[in-house]
Design brief:
OB fold (Dihydrolipoamide Acetyltransferase, E2P), about 5% helix, 5-stranded antiparallel β-sheet, mainly beta
Length: about 120
């Protein structure tokens, strides 16, 4: 399935094989919504036609929309700073990450993995 968009409290997904769309309520996706971006491929687990869970890929790439400038001594001290992504996810990143950068995030831990290319 492919995540399409959010409208209010509903999240819309499309089956990429037959192009059928389904709407899932916020309660079903609230644990993963901070990683959802349009066109992200996910697995929607269901039982007898009822969606039960949304499973994300192991990592996702998100764009940093807000973070403070890096420090020149950061490479030596190996310190982290707070960053906010396009989905509203807030996490710790290395000081060389700047606003506008795309970063790879582990969806299981919610931690920074690397700067995306």
């Amino acid at each position: 399935m492919e995540f399409l968009y959010r409208d209010g409290n509903d999240f819309y997904f499309m089956n990429t094989e037959n192009y059928e769309q389904i709407a899932l309520p916020k309660e079903l996706v609230e644990t993963v919504e901070r990683f959802l971006t349009p066109n992200l491929q996910v697995e929607v687990e269901s039982y007898e036609g009822v969606a039960l869970n949304v499973r994300l890929p192991k990592t996702v790439t998100l764009k940093v929309v807000e973070t403070s400038p890096g420090m020149k001594t950061a490479a030596v001290t190996n310190t982290l700073k707070r960053a906010k992504t396009e989905t509203g996810l807030s996490l710790q990143v290395p000081h060389f990450v700047a606003t506008g950068d795309s970063i790879t995030i582990n969806t299981e831990s919610g931690e920074y993995v690397s700067r995306a290319k």
